[in-house]
Amino acid sequence: MSDTVTLSLAEATDLSTAALTANGADGENASAVTDIMMRAERDRCASHGLFRLPGYCASLKSGKVKGDARPVASEIAPGAVRVDGQGGFAPLALEVGLPVLAQKAKTQGIAGMGLVNIYHFAALWPEVETLAEQGLCAFAFTQASPMVAPAGGIKPFFGTNPMAFAWPRPGQNPYVFDQASAAMARGDVMIHARDGHPVPLGTGIDEDGNPTTDPNEVLKGAQSPFGGYKGSNIALMVELLAGGLIGSVFSPEAGRLDNKDGGPPVGGEFLMAIDPAHFGDAAHWAQHCETLFSELTAMEGVRLPGERRRKARLETPTSGIVLPRSLLEKINGLM
Amino acid sequence: MSDTVTLSLAEATDLSTAALTANGADGENASAVTDIMMRAERDRCASHGLFRLPGYCASLKSGKVKGDARPVASEIAPGAVRVDGQGGFAPLALEVGLPVLAQKAKTQGIAGMGLVNIYHFAALWPEVETLAEQGLCAFAFTQASPMVAPAGGIKPFFGTNPMAFAWPRPGQNPYVFDQASAAMARGDVMIHARDGHPVPLGTGIDEDGNPTTDPNEVLKGAQSPFGGYKGSNIALMVELLAGGLIGSVFSPEAGRLDNKDGGPPVGGEFLMAIDPAHFGDAAHWAQHCETLFSELTAMEGVRLPGERRRKARLETPTSGIVLPRSLLEKINGLM
Questions:
Q1: Does A88 reside within a domain?
Q2: Which of A327, B89, B257, B281 is deepest in the core (most CB within 10 A)?
């Protein structure tokens, strides 16, 4: 028997919806959370796809996350939006908030949005990509619970604290990156551990602070920031934006509050959206930027991030997605 | 004879003013440019202090940069400011624009500012620190001319493309970082070359794309981004913000336009300012953030960026600053 199974995207959607519903999500939340995992599966980003479903279900089951949350968006300043997630998962809060943020950016030139009282367990590229598809430049930041040692330290303090950025390219896919301020995303370290693969040196340290290539030791010890103190500075910036600025919690606080049920800790997310038509040359900014992309991608060895995702996106609607059989069994056991 | 000289800050100020004036800067521009170099010297950031004065003077002398520019700020959207530097150095444009940006951030919650038609040859921390001292969270980004190879490539394409961030800490010094998306700032590579010191592996590559520790080879070849492809993504983000968004030029364009007189190329700068009082808990955000800083700095081995600068700032008003004699002689030769 093969140790993998192939599902169509429709089958995967049904599976996710059934599992979330069985664990207490209502229709709107199950749909929003499933959609965010399906965007990852469609792009073959396994670490943010159905791999997360057991965690989502665990947090519903433990009662930590509200499966019937109704997030509320409010305008708190001409350029500022706040979404109270009401203790639910982030995807529905984003569905509520993103249109308000986009509208504000288009009238103000720039706008910011803080999501508080949410549980974020997904990648950040879906939200910035959504904004860029509407012609906006976008940033997103979120904290987590302590997993990364600050530069110079050996104990976990920061979350993997990703920062995502998207740039609109009218008529084609936006330029998007979504990168942990950790050297490796948590989900990828977990997948390396699951599959018994070593991680590159620099990914993290063991409990005594020694560099290691064993992902299990890194998970017990601490991940390292990317690029040394510079990545560490970005991690702290993310704490200040997604925790301090918007009135949410910092990763160490989130870690202390968490019930360790396997799902995400409570947290916040900060986004910014900017309308290039307001800042530069409204008629030519996009065309001007294409000259940069052309010149860059003409260089030997250089490619833009997200190309592999976009290629997968064209294939998975017909090829379906491949899951470890153990994951499918785990998911079936959730219902 | 010692190969260094000690000057008081007042003497250094007079020296800079005289040299800039002798090369065609009017009083306002000489004062703004001198002030920005003195902020660096005061903090013992040699690479952005008087070390830059010959470059500033060269660009005045060649006629590339206008010594009598009068930058003009305009409000282009409720949250957007544009400053046309009118072909002058950045410092006077920033003096004109920063109060407008700060005011907008305080009323809108968030605001952005594009500076175009400027010549930026300074660090970015002074502008974000200035905004943070007014209670605002601030970002700044600027491009340059091609010096850094994109991840995967071997030819210079990006500028060193710094990103600076500041967080206000009422009652004490703001948290500030200002970091090149290159592994090492250009000025530091130049100072290593001048002083005959090797640079760490990873700083850059020679003309054939081979890793090297010789700063002269790096200057002939290409610098590398910090943290591999993640730093490269940040470099591209900076191009898009400081070049594409605000209607300025990209580093490769700036490089082609430049007369190579030793001063900075034409460019742009993008800044954002955010008022934490609008996004989170207006009464407690600062206090909440101090719990994070306390917990972080209590960790063994961890220190915040800028501490060395702040220490120097307390000392140099009495100790003066130390310059290589060769630099003083070079500066005297400019007049």
A1: yes
A2: B89
| Test mutation, A157, A175, A240, chain B, max B CBs within 10 A | A240
Q: Indicate whether A200 belongs to any domain.
A: no
Chain A residue with Cα closest to B158: A296
pLDDT tens by residue, A248-275: 999 999 999 999 999 999 999 999 999 9
| Structural domain count, chain B | 1
B250 in any annotated domain: yes
Closest Cα partner for A296 from B69, B243, B113?
B243
CATH number at B268 reads: 3.30.1370.60
Which of B31, B43, B48, B232 is catalytic? The answer is: B48
A65's tokens: 């996350």
Q: Considering only alpha carbons, which residue of chain A is nearest residue B224?
A: A227
Query: In the prediction, which pLDDT does B1 show?
Result: 66
Assigned domain for A287 exists: no
Distance separating the N- and C-terminal Cα atoms of chain B: 23
Consecutive H or E run containing B39: helix B27-42
Q: Find the domain containing B137 and state its range.
A: 4-182+225-282+306-332
Distance CA A195, CA A295 (A): 39
Asked whether the beta carbons of residue B299 and residue A247 sit closer than 8 angstroms, the reply is no
Chain A, chain B: beta-carbon pairs less than 8 Å apart: 216
Contact A167, A204 (CB under 8 A): no
Is residue A247 within 8 A of residue B280, CB to CB? The reply is yes
Residues B150 and B237 sit within 8 Å (Cβ to Cβ): no
User: Which pTM value belongs to this model?
Assistant: 0.97
Q: Complex ipTM, two decimals? A: 0.97
